[in-house]
């Protein structure tokens, strides 16, 4: 029992002799552990990461995904083809389930659940053909008799957004017929008016 006071006394003497430098490593370690991550070190979650995070939360098939401010809205059809979940994925990757319901017409989800090209594959195909950042992806199976496909919106570095159709069978990319492939969100003529 006499050893404990002797060890404490020896440690205290070592600190007095070594000075404040001996205690510095512990203070540095604590500062490094508790320092907040700088804004530059944090990266926003992109569309692919948002889809992955949503599918980890609710396994199934992504039906649509779009970014609204700092939040990704992701709709997932469950593996059963019946459950629909609306999820919100933050820029840090945190997932919150906003709504969940059961679809009475699970047969209507069969083409989506059975599609060879997933939402993630459609996004990668669109970006490979047209570099930029995916802003949204939507499953489209009611396009006036056209085969089911993905609509992918890509924002280029110059700020212009374009819409592409990606086939659900082989992932081929084409310019969307909806808007001619170019949705000009910027002021092209420099007059401060967007033309509307």
Taking all Cα atoms into account, the compactness measure Rg is 27 Å
Structure class: alpha+beta
Determine the number of helices (DSSP H or I, runs of at least 4 residues): 5
Major pleated sheet:
8 strands, antiparallel
Q: What key attributes describe this structure?
A:
alpha+beta; eight-stranded antiparallel β-sheet; disordered C terminus; 5 helices; disordered N terminus; 30% strand; 196 residues
Give structural notes:
An eight-stranded antiparallel sheet has the order 4-3-2-1-5-6-7-8. The longest helix has 16 residues, at about 5-20. It starts with a helix and ends in a 21-residue tail after the last strand. The chain contains five helices and eight strands; from the N terminus they run αααββββααββββ. Helix 3 (about 45-55) packs antiparallel against helix 5 (about 120-130). It is α+β, with helices and mostly antiparallel strands and about 200 residues long. The protein has helices at about 5-20, 25-35, 45-55, 110-115, 120-130; strands at about 60-70, 70-80, 85-90, 95-100, 135-140, 150-155, 160-165, 175. Helix content is about 25%, strand content about 30%. Residues about 1-40 and about 180-195 have low confidence and may be disordered.
